[in-house]
């Protein structure tokens, strides 16, 4: 090989050795530029959201802390501490929020605590659920409605360091309903749910610092059905056992319900409810308290085991004793008389029977009865009802012991007209507690929930009630 060929070979070898170095340099430059662009976008996006939210609130009702004046008899709260963190949220937060609350008007609520919503940790569990009609039934809608109401209210904070409560907006019931409607059997749907729920908990507990500070005691999970958290595996339940559960009407014997920490909420029927679940327009137009109620006692519902001659439980006892009674409707749903027909019948009844009996969704009848001015008759011994700490159910309902179910007709006939009228009057005043609106309304279902949280806030990490500016009376 001549000298020129050797030189050419050496040059090619040097150039070949430079290729990995050049590739490394290019990668470093591209990576640096991408980080710069990502930080710039995050800064613009964050400032855009905060400025929109703040400006909207100030236009409506001022800043959250400046809007509220101390109430009579209330301990003045200390000023809120400022966050020492440089970022309100982790760097990995997704740019798209789970809740489309920015397009709705924010509103003020007169309570001093703050709530943080994890709006970026449930994409796996909530995938393809947003906007589904099946998710906006009274039985499941609370999973969407409550986080949305909170995120548009003055108690909402984007800084977890300032929060008293943390909502983990998983949609367990909606997830199960959607899977089953697609033909997935219950056990497989439950297994998929628990796997996704575990992933959600992993994110909350590993990426964020808030859980470990209280072992989840200030975290809120929503389980709006009568089974509450029973759908969760033992492993998942063990991880969140100290958290606050918002549940539907539930049995006190449910081992995953703790009345000391958990809150029972009414079904979230409202403007978002699907048309087939909403009360018919003619019922809204009618006077629920009209005197033309010709039926003494009404029930139209499922009788488990009736058709296969293997009946059981309270409903069978009631059927045997009520079907031949005068002024009593005790029937099963038919093709000619379904949901809306049943509600028309309830509108003509003085008392509406609301028995348990192993039928999922039985408690929805209670709130239909209240809305339609029909005095609820509960046949359920150990049931925990919504907001019992603030609502006296004895004023507008009747409760019959399960062992006395056979005597229901006699019990109802013994209630005189004046006593029934008093219960009707109480219904007028009470039904607002079970109605959800798209913003805060005093004494509505959302307000009752906030009052329950207010009672508990003194035990939370950032509670303003741990300090006070006025001297404590000594005499």
From TrEMBL:
<dbReference type="Pfam" id="PF03016">
    <property type="entry name" value="Exostosin_GT47"/>
</dbReference>
<protein>
    <submittedName>
        <fullName>Glycerol kinase</fullName>
    </submittedName>
</protein>
<dbReference type="InterPro" id="IPR004263">
    <property type="entry name" value="Exostosin"/>
</dbReference>
<keyword id="KW-0333">Golgi apparatus</keyword>
<feature type="region of interest" description="Disordered">
    <location>
        <begin position="53"/>
        <end position="99"/>
    </location>
</feature>
<keyword id="KW-0808">Transferase</keyword>
<dbReference type="GO" id="GO:0000139">
    <property type="term" value="C:Golgi membrane"/>
</dbReference>
<keyword id="KW-0812">Transmembrane</keyword>
<feature type="domain" description="Exostosin GT47">
    <location>
        <begin position="112"/>
        <end position="408"/>
    </location>
</feature>
<feature type="transmembrane region" description="Helical">
    <location>
        <begin position="18"/>
        <end position="37"/>
    </location>
</feature>
<dbReference type="GO" id="GO:0016301">
    <property type="term" value="F:kinase activity"/>
</dbReference>
<keyword id="KW-1133">Transmembrane helix</keyword>
<comment type="similarity">
    <text>Belongs to the glycosyltransferase 47 family.</text>
</comment>
<dbReference type="GO" id="GO:0016757">
    <property type="term" value="F:glycosyltransferase activity"/>
</dbReference>
<keyword id="KW-0418">Kinase</keyword>
<keyword id="KW-0472">Membrane</keyword>
<dbReference type="InterPro" id="IPR040911">
    <property type="entry name" value="Exostosin_GT47"/>
</dbReference>
<feature type="compositionally biased region" description="Polar residues">
    <location>
        <begin position="53"/>
        <end position="74"/>
    </location>
</feature>
């Amino acid at each position: 090989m001549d000298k020129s060929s050797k030189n050419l070979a050496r040059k090619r070898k040097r150039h070949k050795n430079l290729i990995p170095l050049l590739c490394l340099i290019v990668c470093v430059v591209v990576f640096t530029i991408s980080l710069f662009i990502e930080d710039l976008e995050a800064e613009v996006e964050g400032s855009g959201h905060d400025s929109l939210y703040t400006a909207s609130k100030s236009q409506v009702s001022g800043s959250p802390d400046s809007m509220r004046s101390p109430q009579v008899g209330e301990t003045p709260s200390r000023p809120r501490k400022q966050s020492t963190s440089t970022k309100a949220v982790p760097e990995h937060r997704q740019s798209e929020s789970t809740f489309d609350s920015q397009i709705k008007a924010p509103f003020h609520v007169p309570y001093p605590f703050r709530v943080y919503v994890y709006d970026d940790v449930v994409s796996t569990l909530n995938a393809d659920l947003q906007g589904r009609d099946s998710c906006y039934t009274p039985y499941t809608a609370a999973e969407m409605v409550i986080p949305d109401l909170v995120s548009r209210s003055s108690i909402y904070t984007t800084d977890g360091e300032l929060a008293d409560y943390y909502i983990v907006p998983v949609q367990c019931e909606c997830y199960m309903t959607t899977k089953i409607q697609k033909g997935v059997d219950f056990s497989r749907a439950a297994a998929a749910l628990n796997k996704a729920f575990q992933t959600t908990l992993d994110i909350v507990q590993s990426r964020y610092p808030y859980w470990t500070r209280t072992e989840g005691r200030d975290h809120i999970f929503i389980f709006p059905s009568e089974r509450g958290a029973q759908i969760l595996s033992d492993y998942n339940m063990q991880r969140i056992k100290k958290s606050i559960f918002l549940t539907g009407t539930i049995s006190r014997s449910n081992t995953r319900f703790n009345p000391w920490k958990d809150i029972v909420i009414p079904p979230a029927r409202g403007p978002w409810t699907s048309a087939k679940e909403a009360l018919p327009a003619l019922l809204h137009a009618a006077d629920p308290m009209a005197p033309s109620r010709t039926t003494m006692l009404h029930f139209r519902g499922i009788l488990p085991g009736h058709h296969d001659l293997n009946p059981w439980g309270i409903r069978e006892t009631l059927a045997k004793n009520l079907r031949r009674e005068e002024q009593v409707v005790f029937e099963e749903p038919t093709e000619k008389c379904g949901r809306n027909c049943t509600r028309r019948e309830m509108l003509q009844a003085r008392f509406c029977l609301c028995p348990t009996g192993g039928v999922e969704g039985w408690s929805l009848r209670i709130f239909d009865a209240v809305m339609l001015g029909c005095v609820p008759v509960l046949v359920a011994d150990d049931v925990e009802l919504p907001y019992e700490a603030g609502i006296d159910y004895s004023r507008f309902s009747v409760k019959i012991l399960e062992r006395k179910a056979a005597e229901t007709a006699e019990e109802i006939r013994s209630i005189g007209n004046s006593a029934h009228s008093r219960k009707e009057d109480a219904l007028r005043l009470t039904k607002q507690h079970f109605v959800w609106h798209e913003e805060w309304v005093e004494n509505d279902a959302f307000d009752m929930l906030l009052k329950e949280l207010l009672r508990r806030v003194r035990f939370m990490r950032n509670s303003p009630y741990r300090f006070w500016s006025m001297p404590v009376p000594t005499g």
